[in-house]
Amino acid sequence: MREGYEGTGPGAITPDGCAVELYARLPVGDEPEIIASAVPEGARVLELGSGVGRITHALLERGFTVTAVDESAEMLERIRGARTIRSPIEELDLGETFDAVLLASFLVHAGDAEVRRGLLRTCARHAAEGGCVLIQREGEDYHTNVPRERVDPAGFTVRVVSSEPVGDGVHSVRAEYEFPDAVWTQTFRARPLSGEQFEEALGEAGLAVDRYLTDDRTWVRAVPVPVPGTGKGGASIAGPR
Q1: Can you give the residue ranges of every domain in the chain?
Q2: Mapping DSSP to helix (H, G, I), strand (E, B) and coil, where does residue 7 land?
Q3: Could you say which of 155, 170, 200, 214 would form a disulfide bridge with 219 (CB–CB 3.0 to 4.6 Å)?
Q4: Which CATH code for domain 15-140+193-236?
Q5: Does the pTM of the predicted model rise above 0.90?
């Protein structure tokens, strides 16, 4: 298990504390509609951090072609109908580009800033000319409105129990998922980013906000921008600035 990451509950737990059985139970929300509103019909999508395919399968049903990437073999085994690739996101280099690159699940808030830079460089590297990167951010009160809970219509309860600063702008977050027959917990590191910090991080990777897709600004459509002196987009950046 990675330092600062932990998961409990039935079934396999990935190194970042994600429970495979839990993620297989979670229903898809409005993510597919948000994504479909921002990309062309039938687009080729690179989904980074796909997990068990909660969003993957919904996109396939809408006619998109999806390449699903995750570092957990147990997660990828649950995906049907999509090309799957096992790899850490920040190390991925497929040598091809896509109409849309998807980085959901608040991955852009990785506690390790170098990991975040790697994630965003991977996004930029795989975005086609004229393509886009779709990113899901934390809500503004994600770390302040705690503890909180939500009862899902499917019959389970999600709680964010705590979010405690652990230094260098990073928080340790503990979440609980309570089902009638099982309980899972996940503890992970997250780095809150203001709107300015988020857009600065995009710029480091050669990306810029095209538009915010939701009123709460948690979903963002970003696009590659030229790198001064190269005439090329963000995919040409070799490392953090």
Answers
A1: 15-140+193-236
A2: strand
A3: 214
A4: 3.40.50.150
A5: yes
